[in-house]
Specification:
single chain; 73 residues; mainly alpha; 2 helices; 0% strand
Length: 73
């Protein structure tokens, strides 16, 4: 696992830093899922379902951290 890169945006805030880390984690997890699917460890449907689930997590974190919305009901 690689260390997270630092966030250098002009609009720095603790929330944006955390979202940046979530975004990097999402990208890393997608890469792992794609590799597992490519090696036959996951079906395409399983890979899709897992990526869709972590996309929802990322989208929710953006809503909570960047847009200032509470958790979705």
């Amino acid at each position: 696992m690689e260390a997270h890169a630092s966030y250098r945006g002009n609009d720095w805030s603790p929330q944006r830093l955390l979202f940046h880390q979530n975004l990097e984690s999402f990208a890393e997890r997608v890469g792992l899922i794609v590799a597992l699917q490519g090696n036959g460890k996951l079906s395409q449907e399983q890979a899709y379902d897992q990526i869709r689930a972590i996309w929802k997590e990322l989208k929710d974190s953006k809503g909570n951290l960047i847009n200032g919305k509470g958790p979705a009901a």
